[in-house]
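R.M. (postdoc): so does anyone remember the format we settled on? I'll just put the C-alpha cells first.
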C-alpha cells in the first residue's frame, strides 16, 4: 500500500499518521522500524520491527474489539499499515497499570521487584519527554475525578485500563506468560473516551513462568517467574543486541497470533 502521496497528519517516534482521502472519519497508521527508550534519548532502527509490531498490534486490538473494548482500531489493510478512527482529541496522558512491580516503580516506590498488586494499580503520567513523563499526583487525580469537568474521563480511562489488563493478563497466561504492566493511551472519538495508539512489544513487560504451576497469588511472585527470559522492551533498555531485541518481539508476535483462538 503506497501512502507516499497521502498527506502526513503527524509523524511520531514509531509511527506516521496519514490522511485517508476516501474517508474523513479514519486515518492510516504506518509502523516504523524505529525503536526508542529513555524518552527518546536512546534510538535505533531495527529492520523488520515495524512488521512484527504491526502484527502484534493487530492481533491485540482485534482481540480487544472482539471482547467489546472501545478502541480506535478498524482493520489492518496492508503490511505495516492499520486503519484507525480519527480522533476529535488526543488525551496527553500515558496510563500505566501494574500487576507486578518492575521498572520505574522500584526507583521511587520502595517496593521489592516482583511484589504483586491486587487489585492492579493504575497511574497517570503526563506525556512529555523533556519532563520524563511525570506522574500525576494521586490526590489531584481523585480531585479531578470528583470535580465535574473532565473527571468522568479519568474514571473511564482507569476502568478501561483495568478491564484491558484483566483481558490481556488472562490471554498471556494461556501461553504461560505473566503480564507485569503496560502503558495505554486514550483519545476522544465522537466525544467518547476510546483506547488509541498502538499496543506492541514496547508497551508492556512480559515474563514467562519459571515453573509448570507457579503460585501467582503470593505477595511476591519473583521466584515464580523467569525475568531472564523476559520478552519485552527491557531487553532493549538494558542494552542487549538489536538482533536479540527483534527476536523477542518476534516471539511476542507469535504468541499474540494465538489470541485469535481466545
Ligand atoms: P515504567 O514506568 O516501569 O518504566 O513502565 C511501566 C510500563 O509502561 C512498562 O510496560 C513500559 O514498557 C510502559 N511504558 C512506560 N513509558 C512508556 C513509553 O513512553 N512508551 C511505551 N511504549 N511504553 C511505556
Amino acid at each position: 500500500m503506497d501512502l507516499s502521496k497521502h498527506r502526513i497528519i503527524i509523524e511520531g517516534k514509531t509511527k506516521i499518521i496519514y490522511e485517508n482521502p476516501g474517508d474523513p472519519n479514519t486515518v492510516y497508521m504506518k509502523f516504523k522500524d524505529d525503536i526508542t527508550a529513555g524518552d527518546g534519548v536512546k534510538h535505533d532502527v531495527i529492520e523488520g520491527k515495524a512488521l512484527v509490531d504491526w502484527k502484534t498490534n493487530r492481533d491485540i486490538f482485534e482481540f480487544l474489539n472482539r471482547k467489546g473494548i472501545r478502541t480506535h482500531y478498524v482493520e489492518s489493510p496492508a503490511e505495516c499499515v492499520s486503519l484507525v478512527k480519527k480522533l476529535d482529541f488526543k488525551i496527553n496522558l500515558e496510563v500505566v497499570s501494574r500487576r507486578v512491580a518492575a521498572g520505574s516503580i522500584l526507583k521511587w516506590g520502595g517496593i521489592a521487584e516482583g511484589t504483586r498488586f491486587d487489585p492492579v494499580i493504575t497511574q497517570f503520567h503526563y506525556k512529555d519527554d523533556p519532563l520524563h513523563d511525570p506522574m500525576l499526583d494521586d490526590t489531584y487525580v481523585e480531585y479531578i475525578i470528583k470535580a465535574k469537568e473532565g473527571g468522568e474521563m479519568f474514571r473511564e480511562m482507569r476502568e478501561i485500563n483495568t478491564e484491558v489488563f484483566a483481558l490481556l493478563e488472562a490471554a498471556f497466561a494461556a501461553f504461560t506468560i505473566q503480564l507485569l504492566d503496560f502503558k495505554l493511551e486514550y483519545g476522544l472519538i465522537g466525544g467518547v473516551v476510546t483506547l488509541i495508539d498502538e499496543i506492541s512489544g514496547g508497551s508492556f513487560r512480559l515474563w514467562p513462568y519459571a515453573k509448570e504451576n507457579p503460585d501467582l497469588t503470593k505477595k511476591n511472585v519473583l521466584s515464580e517467574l523467569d525475568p531472564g527470559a523476559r520478552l519485552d522492551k527491557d531487553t532493549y533498555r538494558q542494552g542487549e543486541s538489536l538482533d536479540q531485541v527483534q527476536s523477542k518481539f518476534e516471539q511476542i508476535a507469535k504468541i499474540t497470533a494465538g489470541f485469535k483462538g481466545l
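R.M.: ...and that's the designed sequence above, right after the C-alpha cells. Also worth knowing: The mean pLDDT is 95. The radius of gyration is 18 Å.
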